[in-house]
Structure formats: structure tokens, C-alpha cells
Write a structure and sequence with these properties.
There is one protein chain. By secondary structure, the protein is an all-alpha fold. The protein folds into 2 domains: 182 residues; 125 residues, Homeodomain-like (Arc Repressor Mutant, subunit A, Orthogonal Bundle), CATH 1.10.10. Helices cover 70% and strands 0% of the residues. The protein has 16 helices and no strands.
Length: 334
């Protein structure tokens, strides 16, 4: 299986689709910010409606954490139900404190303390999400996105929670607390929108899982690699797993199991795109191919159009194919 090492010289290409839960938690976060706005502007003049608005606004930090999880954790790592349960517990605690209004002491005081503890915890967890899986081989664009999110979240939290809320009563910060928090809320909504938009175009790479290979799998994996590396069949734009199985004279399910097992790809398309991007990068860096347009290289490598090629290439390298080519030309010229 020595040839297998070559295919992992580049990080895997992520699938071209964003997580749905990001949009759900993004909407809940922005909705909680909206309730915060309404609550600050209207106060408690609407009775029970004002109480409900306050309860919805208190969940802002919880939804921000779940949004951060959906932005930076692989899909499999987001399957656990306990984070959502913790945020719902935060909402329930806020509702109890809001409606009890001090009439069930000392229970109200205990629940209020629990609510504060959960809120502080999820704020810290939200700050940890961008750097949780940050590695040396993380693509530059992904690394910049994570660090920008961390810096923005930390700055807004520091200003709104630490500075404005914790300032002495006589200070300018305390007197302008509402204005400061509303400004931070606006910035948080804008930042969340940008993060969701970015992640839609640069999906979070899923970790590659490998099964323990048996000898038959290793032999089949070597045959698959031979077809891909020696015959370059990935350049066939209409190639399907059934075509590969037919060339190998193997059952389709065995080929699929080998791709997701010893070869370590998520699926057939993931594997084929990996080889296509690797070959495209080689040609873009080759001075002998400088006369070829990027579109020609994309089509020659098996992509059906320029759009999917540009998205997959940028997700892999953190820059467009044109920028990749220009950067290599600059290095050669220097």
C-alpha cells in the first residue's frame, strides 16, 4: 500500500454543502438578539409579554455557543443532544426566575445562580470552539476564519459583558451600558451573518474515518489506486462508482466499502475530487501549462464546469486557482 501514502499528500476536499443546523442556530441567535433589542427599547411596560421577551433574550449566549459548534465542529461531533438540552435548561431557568420574581426564595435565588453559571460556561465554550480542532495542517483560509471569529467574539464579550455590565455605577461605561450593549448586539448579528455566509461557501472538512483493512481490501485498494494514478480515469467527468466497479470486475458495494475503509475517503465523489484537485494544482504550478486557461485545466482534470472547480480548489488551498497560479509564478520569478 505504499502508493496510498501519495493520495494523502493534500488534505481531503470537503463536500460542497454547508450544515443545515448552522442556519437554524444562526436564526435562533439573531432572533434572541432581536428580542434583546425589543426588551431594551420597551422595558417592562407590556406585562407578561415583556417577561416572554426577556426570557427569549436571555438565551442569546446559549444560541451563540450552538452556532459556534455548528460552524467549527464536524457533523458527527454535533450529533449529541446534550448541548441543546443545556441551552433549553438555560431558557427554562430564565423563565422560572422571570415569573417567580423572588416569590419562591431561596429556590429562585438558587436557580438564578444556576442560570448565571450556565451562561458563563456557554460563553467560554463558544470562545473555545474556533480553536478546538485547529491544527498545523489546517488550510490558511480556514485558520484565518477561525481566528477572526475568536477575536470578534472575544472583543464583543469583553465589551458587553465584562466592561459594560461590570463597570462601577458612576462610570461612563455604566451610564452608557444600554447603548454599548445594543451596539455590540448589532455587530454580533452582522458577524454571525458573515460567518454563516462564509461557511456556506467553505464547508467544514469532515474527519476521515478508516476501517481496519483486511488483505482482500488492501489488494482492491491497490487496484483502485492503480486505475487512478496510472490510468488517470478521474479525468472522465461522467465517471461513477459503477464504472469503476465494472473496470475492476468487482461488486459495486465492495468498491464503495474499500473507498470508505482502507482508502479513507467519505465517498466516491470525495475520492475522485481529491485526485482531480491534486492534478489541477500540479498543472497550475507547472510552467509548461502556463498557456492553458484555468477553465481548460479544470475540464481536462474531470470537472464539468468552472464553478464547482473553483469552490473545491479554494476549500482545499484557501485561494482561487488563478491566485494559486499567480503566487507560484511570483515565486519562480523571484
Amino acid at each position: 500500500m505504499a502508493a496510498a501514502h501519495d493520495i494523502f499528500a493534500l488534505p481531503p476536499v470537503p463536500e460542497d454543502k454547508g450544515p443545515k443546523d448552522t442556519h437554524v442556530y444562526g436564526a435562533l441567535f439573531i432572533g434572541a438578539i432581536a428580542f434583546f433589542f425589543v426588551g431594551r427599547l420597551t422595558g417592562d411596560r407590556f406585562g407578561i409579554i415583556s417577561d416572554l421577551i426577556a426570557i427569549a433574550a436571555n438565551a442569546t449566549c446559549g444560541w451563540s455557543w450552538l452556532l459556534a459548534r455548528s460552524l467549527f465542529r464536524p457533523k458527527a461531533a454535533r450529533a449529541s443532544p446534550w448541548p441543546l438540552a443545556a441551552v433549553l435548561a438555560l431558557v427554562a431557568a430564565g423563565a422560572f426566575v422571570q415569573f417567580a420574581d423572588g416569590r419562591a426564595e431561596p429556590l429562585t435565588h438558587m436557580v438564578a445562580n444556576l442560570q448565571g453559571l450556565i451562561s458563563a460556561t456557554v460563553l467560554v465554550l463558544a470562545l473555545s470552539e474556533p480553536v478546538r480542532d485547529l491544527r498545523k495542517d489546517t488550510p490558511r483560509a480556514e485558520r484565518c476564519f477561525r481566528l477572526a471569529f475568536l477575536g470578534g467574539h472575544a472583543a464583543l464579550t469583553t465589551v458587553a459583558v465584562v466592561w459594560a455590565s461590570g463597570a462601577p455605577a458612576s462610570s461612563i461605561a455604566a451610564q452608557s451600558s444600554d447603548a454599548i450593549k445594543l451596539t455590540c448586539a448589532v455587530l454580533a448579528v452582522l458577524a454571525a451573518g458573515v460567518a454563516i455566509w462564509y461557511r456556506g461557501g467553505a464547508p467544514q472538512p469532515e474527519p476521515v474515518r478508516r476501517r481496519n483493512a483486511v488483505s482482500a481490501d488492501e489488494v482492491l485498494a491497490a487496484r483502485i489506486l492503480a486505475l487512478l494514478t496510472d490510468e488517470a480515469i478521474y479525468t472522465i467527468s461522467s465517471l461513477k462508482v459503477a464504472d469503476l466497479a465494472r473496470r475492476l470486475n468487482e461488486a459495486e458495494y465492495k468498491v464503495t466499502q474499500c473507498i470508505t475503509g482502507p482508502l479513507g475517503f467519505r465517498n466516491f465523489n470525495h475520492m475522485i475530487n481529491h485526485f482531480r484537485i491534486k492534478e489541477a494544482a500540479r498543472r497550475l504550478a507547472d510552467q509548461g501549462c502556463d498557456h492553458l486557461p484555468v477553465l481548460t485545466i479544470a475540464l481536462d482534470c474531470g470537472f464539468g464546469s468552472i464553478g464547482p472547480f473553483n469552490r473545491a480548489f479554494k476549500a482545499q488551498f484557501g485561494e482561487t486557482p488563478t491566485a494559486f497560479r499567480e503566487a507560484r509564478r511570483t515565486r519562480v520569478a523571484a
